[in-house]
């Protein structure tokens, strides 16, 4: 399978704020939340699409990136990669589980392939950063590419080999390649967080710049409305 090389994205630490820094035992304040009209799908409608799972830092950022990609129908923020059942945001964000913040991507395979989703994944974060993305530190922010079958596993491994053979990065790729087990959807207030909270300091200083860097390097992958 021929896989096109993607541009190397330099991941810059923009601020000292982090996705975890605003975690409290209570629900985060949403005073700045704005109304956003989003296409909604019933569970029955989503069943006709394929799913893919990735973790690459704060799920607010990752969800927004994948939602900008054509062929992607819906993205949910949640938790995966650990063994604890029904984890909460407080537990995961404070490193009290073995789960990572992750996303569930519903996509139309006739419009976008799993291979391209893997390219989006590697091209939108730093896969050489161990247990960290930008200002977010801890194993809950680690890089994981999940696979549901051997074909997907091969796509991921082949792409990692390609990136390494082309010396795209100056350091070894530390992304976990992990068989998918289960995904726990995060609390409702985390869904579409970036779009609904554009004035949040973390969103302004980390999420939106990260999304814009991705858009600049993957213009041909974007939905028309996100150009």
From TrEMBL:
Where in the sequence is the active site? 58
Which Pfam families does the record associate with it?
Answer: PMSR
EC annotation from Swiss-Prot or TrEMBL = 1.8.4.11
**What InterPro entries has UniProt attached to this entry?**
Met_Sox_Rdtase_MsrA_dom, Met_Sox_Rdtase_MsrA_sf
Q: What residues does the Peptide methionine sulphoxide reductase MsrA domain cover?
A: 51-202
Job description of the protein:
Has an important function as a repair enzyme for proteins that have been inactivated by oxidation. Catalyzes the reversible oxidation-reduction of methionine sulfoxide in proteins to methionine.
Family per record: Belongs to the MsrA Met sulfoxide reductase family.
Q: Which protein, by its recorded name, is this?
A: Peptide methionine sulfoxide reductase MsrA
